[in-house]
Amino acid sequence: MKIAFIGLGNMGAPMARNLIKAGHALNLFDLNQTVLKELAELGGTISDSPRDASKDAELVITMLPAAAHVRSVWLNEDGVLAGIGKGVPAVDCSTIDPQTIRDVSAAAAKQGVVVADAPVSGGTGGAQAGTLTFMVGAPLELFATLQPVLAQMGRNIVHCGDVGTGQIAKICNNLLLGISMVGVSEAMALGDALGIDTQVLAGIINSSTGRCWSSDTYNPWPGVIETAPSSRGYTGGFGADLMLKDLGLATEAARQAKQPVILGAVAQQLYQSMSQRGDGGKDFSAIINSYRKPK
Ligand code: NAD
């Protein structure tokens, strides 16, 4: 299948690589020439614009940082909608607010194009391994068309409902993740300050009612989980600034719905302080340093 893939960053590049490996012909577009050249060497074709990439594509996929990029890549004069053929399936995999993808979808519908949202979880490791979870918001017919292609980049392809619901699932999950990491950090730091061995404490939590992914897979205390970013100086993983972005999406969506997200707002401020200290590029589990005495 000929696929336009636009946005080839930490997530998009390995996703595109998996599609090339699966035998698809890719039209590639990004602002970063280095990654374009790298993927062209694997067999992709470099395009001059999102419009150019979409012209003869049978499917369009975008994977961009935030809502402003999604709006410009889809709606600008040289954007996807200026090139895409009528009836060609399309999907945006970026993590953005539900309203933006609904706006893009409404603009696309005017020219006979149906657009889905399919944000992902699983991080860069999942993108490389092809084990991402896709949370898809789309009419069932489009979901059925996308499913086999998404399955070449991911393991769980979940239909969440109509367009926008993928983003809702994603921001609710990350709201909880941001809060649970703060909770685990608070408990681990308190235990240490009160004098219990942190390995023992983590073991108790992970076999008791406090257990969660932030404690048993991604524990923020260094050395508890060897494979977690906390055990390698909080490098790699999921940057605190991306978590801050996702909590911003959740609190903004909540504001629009007049729905309280009290702990989410507190967590957002904690990650914001972390970012202000210059630590926004560290893995989000480094939030535990807000609770630890400086050495
Ligand atoms: P990234 O910043 O590494 O990559 C974004 C890419 O988009 C870059 O290569 C950039 O050059 C390109 N880009 C920006 N503006 C563009 C434009 N106008 N036209 C063409 N290309 C443009 O980001 P990422 O880590 O790949 O994340 C992408 C999305 O996936 C984000 O919404 C992020 O929140 C989400 N996400 C990231 C992770 C993760 O662990 N990194 C996990 C899940 C979801």
Automatic annotation (TrEMBL):
It comes from the Bacteria. Its EC number is 1.1.1.31. The active site is at 170. PROSITE patterns: 3_HYDROXYISOBUT_DH. It catalyses: 3-hydroxy-2-methylpropanoate + NAD(+) = 2-methyl-3-oxopropanoate + NADH + H(+). Keywords: Branched-chain amino acid catabolism, NAD, Oxidoreductase. It holds the Pfam family NAD_binding_2. The keyword NAD applies. It is an enzyme of class 1 (oxidoreductase). The keyword Nucleotidyltransferase does not apply. Residues 164-290 form the 3-hydroxyisobutyrate dehydrogenase-like NAD-binding domain. GO terms for molecular function: 3-hydroxyisobutyrate dehydrogenase activity; NAD binding; NADP binding. Gene3D superfamilies: N-(1-d-carboxylethyl)-l-norvaline Dehydrogenase, domain 2, NAD(P)-binding Rossmann-like Domain. GO terms for biological process: L-valine catabolic process. InterPro entries: 3-OH-isobutyrate_DH-rel_CS, 6-PGluconate_DH-like_C_sf, 6PGD_dom2, 6PGDH_NADP-bd, HIBADH, HIBADH-like_NADP-bd, HIBADH-related, NAD(P)-bd_dom_sf. Residues 2-161 form the 6-phosphogluconate dehydrogenase NADP-binding domain. Belongs to the HIBADH-related family. This is 3-hydroxyisobutyrate dehydrogenase. It comes from Pseudomonas antarctica.
